[in-house]
Amino acid sequence: MLEPIPWNHVHTLVELGAGTGVFTQMIYDLVRPDCQVAVFEKEEEMRELLKREFCGFHMFSNALELKDSLSSIGADRVDCIVSGLPFANFSQAEREKIIRQVRETLREDGLFITFQYSLQMKTMLEAAFDEVSISLVPWNIPPAFVYTCK
């Protein structure tokens, strides 16, 4: 999932839906020391654990407030957004709001990478981005689709 990220050129990165922090740890290990990282996790206990573990990262609770949250730390435009959000659990309006904010906050040459367990988001992502590539990760349990959007 993190393979397409050009780590040497990423100065601002966002993670949506960090959960237990599996990707957060990898991001922590791979980002440049001067990279500004914002992590979104709705579940308060998990967010507090992440806050303690990754004290240099900005922590936020609601991906639906992506644009305002990033503005509050002076990161109006970002290089990369990585998402583990379970879009299938969101209403259509919420999915549209998040994807719209992703587009509005990504730099022109930015990357949006998300994994999903179905192709449900394919049409929406293809409408929102110029390039969308999809790869299947069969060894993930359950198998997952990784969307890389530019």
TrEMBL record:
Coiled coil: none
Keyword 4Fe-4S recorded: no
MF GO annotations: methyltransferase activity
Domain of life: Bacteria
Keywords of this entry: Methyltransferase, Transferase
Classification via Gene3D superfamilies: Vaccinia Virus protein VP39
Stored InterPro entries: SAM-dependent_MTases_sf (IPR029063), Small_mtfrase_dom (IPR007848)
Keyword Methyltransferase: yes
Gene Ontology biological process terms, A to Z: methylation
SUPFAM superfamilies, sorted: S-adenosyl-L-methionine-dependent methyltransferases (SSF53335)
Record Pfam families: MTS
Domain Methyltransferase small: from-to ranges: 3-133
Protein name per UniProt: Methyltransferase
Source species: Paenibacillus chitinolyticus
Lineage of producing organism: Bacteria, Bacillati, Bacillota, Bacilli, Bacillales
